[in-house]
C-alpha cells in the first residue's frame, strides 16, 4: 500500500521508511526541508512538503495514501504545550480525512506511567503531568475505531535508541556528562526506564499498519526497565567520568520525569503479533560508547 508517513526523516521515521519499503510498500514522506526531502528520496520514498502545522498538506497526503503513520512531534522539552497542541490539531485533521475510509492509521504514543506496577497494553494512557496531553491525543486516535478507521497506537518508551546516533532520554544524560564531566542520575537511581532499539520499533510500526485491528494498543518495549543508575554507570564507564546522584532540578523541566519510575511490558504485543526485539539493548548501546556530540 502507499503509506503517508509524518516525521519521515526523523529519528523514528528514518528507520520506519526503509522498513516499509523493504516490505513492498510505497512511502509518501512528510518533510519540512530540502535536506529532509533528499533523505526520504535516498531511502526510496517520495517527499511531500509540509509539516504538522500545515493542515492542508496533511489532508493532501491522506488523499494520496492507503494508510497513515503519524510519527512527527516537536520534542521541545522546554516548551511542550505547543508541541502537544500541534499534535492534537494534526490528529483532528487526520480523523476528519480518514473517517469512514477503513484505512489504517498508526500513531506514535508513549508508554504510560502506572505507580506501583509495570505498565501493560491494557493500562490507560497517562493523561496528567507534563506529557499528559499526549495521552489525550492517543485516546482520540483509538476512538477513531468507532468511526470506520483502523486506528492503532504504538506506545514508545522514553529511550528509543541506536548505537552512535539516537539514545532517547539518555541523550540528555550523555550530553550532561559530556559537558560537566560527571555522569548523573536522580535520587537513588532505582527508578526504571523502558527502552527499545529503533530498528525493532520500526518493525512494530509496520506490523501495526499491516495487521492491527481497530482500536489496538501495542507496546514497542524491548527492555522492561533499566535503573537510571545503571544507565548512568554505563555512560560513566564509556566516558571515563565519575557517576553521582543529583537533584531532579539539575535536569530542568525534564527532571520531573527523570525522577519517576516508569517500567513497561510488551508481553501482550509479543504474543499477539509475534514481535520479538532482536537488536542491541540500551545498556549495550550505552556501554559501547562512541557517542556523537549531542550538545
Describe the structure.
This protein is α/β, with parallel strands linked by helices and 295 residues long. The chain folds into 2 domains: 2-158 and 196-219, NAD(P)-binding Rossmann-like Domain (Rossmann fold), CATH 3.40.50; 163-194 and 223-287, UDP-galactose 4-epimerase, domain 1 (Alpha-Beta Complex), CATH 3.90.25.10. The chain contains 11 helices and 13 strands. The strands form 3 sheets. A 7-stranded parallel β-sheet has the order 3-2-1-4-5-6-11, sandwiched between helices. A 4-stranded mixed β-sheet has the order 8-7-10-12. Helix 6 packs across helix 8 (228-239). The chain is globular. The model has no long low-confidence stretch (mean pLDDT 95). Residues 117-137 are annotated as: Disordered.
Give a quick rundown of the structure:
This protein has two domains: 2-158 and 196-219, NAD(P)-binding Rossmann-like Domain (Rossmann fold, 3-Layer(aba) Sandwich); 163-194 and 223-287, UDP-galactose 4-epimerase, domain 1, CATH 3.90.25.10.
Describe the oligomeric state of these chains in a short phrase.
single chain
Order of helices and strands: EHEHEHEHEHEEEHEEHEEHEHHH
CATH topology of the largest domain, by name, is: Rossmann fold
Shape: globular
Structural class: alpha/beta
At the fourth level of CATH, the homologous superfamily of the largest domain is NAD(P)-binding Rossmann-like Domain
CATH class of the largest domain: Alpha Beta
Distance between the terminal alpha carbons, to the nearest Å? Answer: 39 Å
Rounded Rg: 19 Å
Largest beta sheet, briefly?
A: 7 strands, parallel
How many individual β-strands? 13
Percent helix range:
25-40%
Strand order, largest beta sheet: 3-2-1-4-5-6-11
The overall average pLDDT, rounded, is: 95
> What is the level-2 CATH architecture name of the largest domain?
3-Layer(aba) Sandwich
Amino acid at each position: 500500500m502507499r503509506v503517508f508517513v509524518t516525521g519521515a526523516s526523523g529519528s523514528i521515521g528514518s528507520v520506519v521508511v526503509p522498513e516499509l519499503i523493504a516490505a513492498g510498500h510505497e512511502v509518501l514522506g512528510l518533510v519540512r526541508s530540502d535536506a529532509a526531502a533528499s533523505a526520504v528520496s535516498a531511502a526510496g520514498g517520495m517527499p511531500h512538503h509540509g509539516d504538522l502545522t500545515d493542515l492542508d498538506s496533511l489532508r493532501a497526503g491522506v488523499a494520496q495514501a492507503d494508510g497513515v503513520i503519524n510519527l512527527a512531534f516537536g520534542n521541545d522539552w522546554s516548551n511542550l504545550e505547543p508541541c502537544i497542541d500541534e499534535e492534537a490539531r494534526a490528529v483532528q485533521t487526520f480523523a476528519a480525512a480518514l473517517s469512514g475510509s477503513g484505512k489504517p492509521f498508526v500513531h506514535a504514543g508513549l508508554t504510560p506511567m502506572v505507580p506501583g506496577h509495570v505498565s501493560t497494553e491494557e493500562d490507560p494512557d497517562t493523561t496528567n503531568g507534563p506529557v499528559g496531553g499526549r495521552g489525550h491525543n492517543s485516546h482520540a486516535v483509538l476512538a477513531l475505531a468507532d468511526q470506520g478507521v483502523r486506528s492503532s497506537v504504538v506506545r514508545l518508551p522514553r529511550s528509543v535508541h541506536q548505537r552512535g546516533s539516537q539514545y532517547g532520554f539518555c541523550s540528555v544524560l550523555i550530553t550532561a556528562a559530556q559537558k560537566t564531566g560527571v555522569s548523573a542520575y536522580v535520587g537513588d537511581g532505582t527508578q526504571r526506564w523502558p527502552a527499545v532499539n529503533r530498528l525493532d520499533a520500526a518493525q512494530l510500526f509496520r506490523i501495526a499498519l499491516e495487521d492491527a485491528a481497530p482500536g489496538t494498543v501495542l507496546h514497542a518495549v524491548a527492555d522492561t526497565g533499566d535503573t537510571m543508575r545503571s544507565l548512568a554507570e554505563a555512560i560513566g564507564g564509556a566516558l571515563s567520568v565519575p557517576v553521582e546522584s543529583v537533584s531532579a532540578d539539575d535536569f530542568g523541566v525534564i527532571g520531573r520525569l527523570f525522577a519517576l519510575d516508569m517500567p513497561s511490558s510488551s508481553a501482550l504485543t509479543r504474543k499477539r503479533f509475534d514481535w520479538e526485539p532482536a537488536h542491541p539493548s540500551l545498556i549495550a548501546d550505552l556501554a559501547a560508547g562512541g557517542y556523537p556530540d549531542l550538545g
